[in-house]
Write a structure and sequence with these properties.
Length: 354
């Protein structure tokens, strides 16, 4: 009997990953709404962020104390450079800052994620509510979305030939055959007048495959290719893969995954042994959560890209504050947007139909 398939949109689940990333949360600021409304949204977002079990969160009260020790005020911190300074003081990998604003008759909650290592804004998400009562739901939704898109990061602690050890282990939900991407942090740049941190050089090195999980905070990996690694280099975990149900030429299903190796999330495919890695999306927006169709011919994914096939072919890309569901051929062609909402749609999956 012939089987077809349809795409089912799944609710985000906290079971997707368990790793802890240290986050400095600066709160949700009001714009055209009362302080009490912003405070309520901030508390709801913070609780949802903690309940994803993915983050170690440094809250605003602690951040204020850290800034006061340096003779600085958190209330005047409004630039990316200042956000990075706050993250450095907190020992955090990421900084999250947000705003709730009234736009006409609606309310919009927006959040930005700043990477402390690179000094750049990695993500910007927003969702709209038609009334004040819906703001808490919107805040919770944004927290869950971030839980699925912020990558796990660690450090190389030992190097022996093409074998490395990292401080990512079972505590971070590391498994054998997971892939980690390696980068080297270079020179830091500071403003000559203000002394504020502006950013730093980040050299992309390559990938390694986890071969042993040795302890809560220790794993061993083998480099995929010929490149140099030293103790102190950073590793990022590549998670959330989708394996094709159709066997490839090597006799095993191909793997689809998303990676931020080029600065934003892209959909990649590779053979089951990690070879022939190919970028299918290759744009300046965030493309993530790939899911193979049952026949292995198409891939569904989520993206904050705005556009259609004509725009894609012209090479023009626009960032959307909301994620939408797209589908494409297994080779990346015929990318088509399926959902059009002022709320994010994520985590697609396929349901076989008789």
């Amino acid at each position: 009997m012939r089987k077809n398939a349809v795409i089912c949109l799944l609710i985000a689940s906290t079971a997707l990953a368990a790793p802890k990333v240290k986050i400095a949360f600066m709160g949700i600021e009001p714009s055209g709404v009362s302080e009490s409304v912003a405070s309520g949204v901030s508390v709801s977002f913070l609780n949802a962020l903690i309940n994803t079990h993915r983050f170690e969160v440094v809250e605003r009260e602690r951040l204020e104390a850290l800034m006061e020790e340096q003779g600085l005020a958190l209330s005047g911190c409004t630039t990316t450079e200042c956000f990075v300074k706050v993250g450095q003081l907190a020992g955090a990998q990421k900084v999250i800052v947000g705003q709730v604003a009234q736009v006409g008759g609606s309310y919009v909650v927006s959040v930005r994620v700043v990477d402390v290592y690179s000094g750049r804004v990695e993500q910007s998400l927003a969702e709209k509510s038609g009334n004040l009562e819906g703001l808490l739901t919107v805040a919770d939704s944004l927290a869950v979305q971030l839980s699925g898109t912020i990558s796990v990061e660690g450090t190389v602690v030992s190097v022996s030939g093409n074998t490395i050890k990292t401080d990512l282990g079972s505590q971070e939900d590391i498994s054998v055959n997971d892939m980690v991407y390696l980068v080297r942090l270079g020179e830091e740049f500071y403003h000559p007048e203000t002394g504020m941190f502006l950013g730093r050089d980040v050299e992309e090195l390559g990938e390694a495959k986890i071969t042993k999980v040795l302890a809560d905070e220790l794993s061993e990996a083998v480099l995929e290719g010929a490149f140099s690694v030293v103790v102190g280099d950073k590793v990022r975990l590549v998670k959330l893969v989708s394996i094709s149900p159709v066997a490839g030429s090597s006799g095993a299903g191909r793997i689809a995954f998303f990676s931020d190796r080029d600065g934003d999330y892209e959909i990649f495919v590779m053979d089951a042994d990690g070879r022939n890695q190919t970028n299918l999306t290759n744009n300046t927006c965030h493309d993530c959560f790939p899911a193979w169709s049952p026949d292995g011919r198409r891939i569904a994914f989520a993206s904050d890209l705005i556009g259609n096939d004509e725009i894609l072919l012209l090479g023009s890309y626009y960032s959307n504050p909301y994620y939408e569901i797209f589908v494409m051929d297994a080779d990346g062609r015929n990318q088509t947007q399926l959902t059009h909402n002022e709320i994010s749609d994520m985590y697609p999956d396929w349901c076989p139909v008789e």
